Amino acid sequence: MIGGCGYNVSFAVEAGGLVKVFGSIRALDGLSFRIKPGEIFGLIGPNGAGKTTALRVVATLILPTSGSAKVYGHDVVEEASEIRELIAYLPEEAGAYKNLSGDEYLRFMAKFRSESSEVLEETVRSAEEISGLGGRLRDKVKTYSKGMKRRLLVARALMAKPKLAVLDEPTSGLDVLHSVHVREIIKRYVKEYGVTVLLSSHNMLEVEYLCERVALIDHGKIVAEGTPEELKSKNKVTNLEEAFAKVVGLA
Amino acid sequence: MLKGLGNVVVKELKELLRDPKILIGMIVVPLVMFPIMGFVIRGAMESTEERLQRLQVGFVDFDHGIAAKNLTDFLDSFPTMTLVNISASSIEEAVEILPTKNATDLLVIPAGFTENVSQGNPAKYPVNVEVYSVFSGAGGITETVTSSAVIEYLEAFKRWLSPDLFQTVSKSIIKGEPADVSPSVLFGIMYSQVFALPITISILLVFSMQIAATSVASEKEEKTLETLLSLPISRFTILFGKLAGSIIVAAAGAVAIMIGFNYYMGSFMVMGDLGVSVDLAAIGMAPTLLGYLVLGASVFVALLSALALAIIISAFSEDVRGAQSIVGYLYVIIMLPMFVIMFADFNSLPLVARVVLLAIPYTHPMLAAQASVTGDYLTAVLGIGYVALFTVALLYVAAKLFATEKILTAKLKFRGLRFRKK
Description:
The complex is a heterodimer of chains A (251) and B (422).
Chain A (H helix, E strand, L loop, with lengths): L12 E10 L2 E11 L4 E5 L6 H8 L7 E6 L2 E2 L4 H7 E4 L11 H9 L6 H15 L14 H13 L5 E5 L7 H18 L2 E5 L3 H7 L2 E6 L2 E6 L1 H7 L5 H8 L4
Chain B lengths: L4 H13 L2 H34 L1 E7 L4 H11 L4 E5 L5 H7 L7 E5 L3 H7 L8 E7 L10 H17 L5 E8 L2 E3 L3 H39 L3 H5 L5 H32 L2 E3 L5 E3 L9 H26 L5 H10 L2 H12 L7 H9 L4 H11 L2 H27 L2 H4 L13
Parallel strand pairs in B: 1-2, 1-3, 4-5
Antiparallel strand pairs in B: 3-4, 5-6, 7-8
């Protein structure tokens, strides 16, 4: 178990007792979870449960009020820059620079992670494949539909094959065919490149299909955790949606 | 055809008046700004009126005759005027002595005045009484008041003596040197500058602030900021990248303003009273190279501070519209010095008003614009130093803001201003 730059650690993400307070709102209330390297971990919960706040803490965008979170052994408070070298974050409502073309946008983003022009070209090629946008990458982002923009952003997040991809609603706004395409890509990147994925989604079908383990979050804390199968059998239901409704008290 | 208009109007009014940003911009700011401007301008006007009530005029008598004595006695009889005798052998020497007598205008009674007046034939024996007035180029619309007042007193003497027996000729003292151009003619030219430059600088500051505020706010609005902040680059790189982009725009703006101003000033050629063509550079009323450099530096640091301020302010907004509304409040501190410098002599303002205006960084490029003509570089250079320090402090705050989550979470709250349901 090597910490720091070796990445040979037991957990890709390790959050313990995370608390985040915004004014009078306690967005996270002692949230704890662990993600193994190469795992796809789903964080699901009702609106306002604290999913996005948890992802933002892991992505080093906001600091926890108390508790700790580590990404490949690096502390989110003390070693944020090291973490940013390892992760790619896709916010739920992310946008792209509308006056750049899709290709320019990808190159702009790829330059931060590419040490040579060969790596840069390879990264952009990967993004082209992930996005499936083809010739439209030469057009300005402002001409894209919502779905096209989302595909571009997913491609941006995965193209550099990060150690950890933090994906907030990765298929939000995509039609069925493109959602399937993106899910396949995520699965493939985990398998081929050892990318670890922490994702949040309201689409239970997607969570069930993608995630090896799932944590149900409500009022800022984990209320249930396990594989999709474990959660279904424990709650004696046939799908994850029913399990979710039962656990958070809406059934 | 307009059915439901009332309903729509009521909805619009509710929407607009319940937006505190609009409420402040449209109602509170004018209610505060105009009284402040009125106070400052009134102070300047009172000061000008005071100057006119205690007019201190130097005179040099090259005639030493009875008519000259009658003239000076006549002028001295006005309680609002104090005549100071200046012993000099030439106009240049008298102009040099004038400031030591605390006077702003010089009356020159030429040799042969009494003799020519006694002939009673101005066509054959023309008599000119010259009035030289100090023209600073920084007096705003009060620049020519003392010169006009002295001419009026002389006209009164003429009417008392005999109309058209002598001519009054108004001339100027520029940077301590007599010049054959009247203050009112000069004012006509400088008036354009007095209005054009502060307005141009204000427009430049306002546009630059809008650009900088939009650059951060659009990152928030377009939801690109979170992605940018999660990239493996330091927050300082992001901040300075944004500033560098804005600095390039600011530098281009400063250069553009210098080129435009130079062209603008160079386009003025005026006819002096003697029918001789006079340009501003020849009479020392056009900026020198040093003047341009000082003005350029002053505009540049002021722009930089405006950009940093706009970036900080826009960090507290959620979208471009919000950022522009918030930045809009800052226009008060640009417009106030602009109006004051356009309409008043800065140095004759009450002390409190001067201190307040000097504390506003955006007063300094406008004062530097005046200094580029008047040659008062010390004030302009001190102003550059002050604005530079202010800018460094702002950059420090901006860097702190970017280094924390505040850049994502900070919001300006207007809770106290919200309308509440009954």
